[in-house]
Amino acid sequence: MMEPVHVSIIYYSSTGTVHALAQAIADGAEKAGARVRLRRVAETAPPEAVESRQEWAQHLADTAHVPSATADDMEWADAVLLGTPTRFGNPASQLRAFIDTLGGLWFQGGLADKVYSAFTASNTAHGGQESTLLALGNTFYHWGGIIVPPGYTDPVQFQSGNPYGTSHVAGDGAPGEVALNAARHQARRVVDIATALKAGRAA
Ligand SMILES: Cc1cc2nc3c(=O)[nH]c(=O)nc-3n(C[C@H](O)[C@H](O)[C@H](O)COP(=O)(O)O)c2cc1C
């Protein structure tokens, strides 16, 4: 019997929105039969910036138990989902800082041939969710990744409305059932495709 696919969910979140999506993705991936690692990237902002927003400092303290992402979490995984808030239409520098530690693994071919997918949040509906997800796509291309977006492959996608990856407008409040179900669907789809690839390679 084939070992379950390994899925790493690696994310950054200042105030908990992307963290909530990451947890739903972990839930969906586990229910689809994957072995899951949920990892947050290190906070790189100076303490005075973090402490300038109570919700930011609180979320950092609340998630201190979530293990920090390392290159091993990339190497171990058959599929990786990256999550980040939008920052001026781009991924957060904290996630980019983690990505920028992966040059050695990339050079050894250790990032190629995996399944990749991404999720995000922004404060406003047209605040850069798609550009953020597409920017992560640029990196997946460089890695030789197999990009698996949700598309419109489930009825929930017609409610959540983002075929590039799960996203949520944080200005509307915490992610509700539509966003969380879209996250679970994205995870299931990633696991299904990664499982088919793993089985095909083992055959
Ligand atoms: C420096 C900075 C830049 C941001 N840029 C955008 C933006 O371009 N568009 C937008 O809608 N929201 C923007 N936001 C809001 C964040 O995307 C939003 O707070 C985040 O998605 C919430 O996710 P989190 O709770 O996981 O941190 C920005 C926030 C910060 C701090």
From TrEMBL:
Q: Report the top EC class in one word.
A: oxidoreductase
User: Recorded E.C. number(s)?
Assistant: 1.6.5.2
Key words of the record:
Oxidoreductase
Q: Which Pfam families match?
A: FMN_red
Q: Which residues form the Flavodoxin-like domain?
A: 7-191
Molecular function (GO) terms listed? NAD(P)H dehydrogenase (quinone) activity
Instruction: Give the family from UniProt.
Output: Belongs to the WrbA family.
Q: Which PANTHER family match?
A: FLAVODOXIN-RELATED PROTEIN WRBA-RELATED (PTHR30546), FLAVOPROTEIN-LIKE PROTEIN YCP4-RELATED (PTHR30546:SF23)
* Protein name (database record): NAD(P)H:quinone oxidoreductase
State the species of origin: Streptomyces milbemycinicus
This protein's gene is called wrbA
